[in-house]
Amino acid sequence: MSMNDWKILLVDDEEEFVSTLAERLSLRGIECRVAKDGEAGLAMIDQDQPDVVVLDMFMPGLKGNEVLRRIKERHPRVQVILLTGQGATKDAMEGMRLGAVDYMIKPLSIDELTAKIGEAVKAARK
User: Fold this and answer.
1) What kind and span of H or E run contains 39?
2) What is the pLDDT of residues 31-78, one digit of tens each?
3) Residues 6 or more apart whose Cβ sits within 8 Å of residue 45
4) Residue 87, SS3?
5) CATH 3.40.50.2300 at 3-121, yes or no
6) Where are the 4-aspartylphosphate modifications (predicted)?
């Protein structure tokens, strides 16, 4: 399974962070689409059905767990990896209960994220 055909969506309101993340993943052969908030992310998921969504927990408007709940209602096969800041592991645990496959704390390791995305893509395509 080639990374080039993975369908990844990054949903995060921190423009500089998400563009840097998309660029670093692209250098590893993982092309990503980017949404700046939960509403835009849900619209892109409805349209494109990615394998994996990397979702920030804390954004203006819809919070990460609400976006996660809606993803799982509409597209249960889409795998979700949550991103959170230090000290928000309680929210991440709630996200895991709602169906996220994993979570990472910012700042994150690109190697670790790449590995987690790879595992999630395999699960999405079973």
Assistant:
1) helix 38-48
2) 999 999 999 999 999 999 999 999 999 999 999 999 999 999 999 999
3) 9, 53, 71, 74, 75, 78
4) coil
5) yes
6) 56
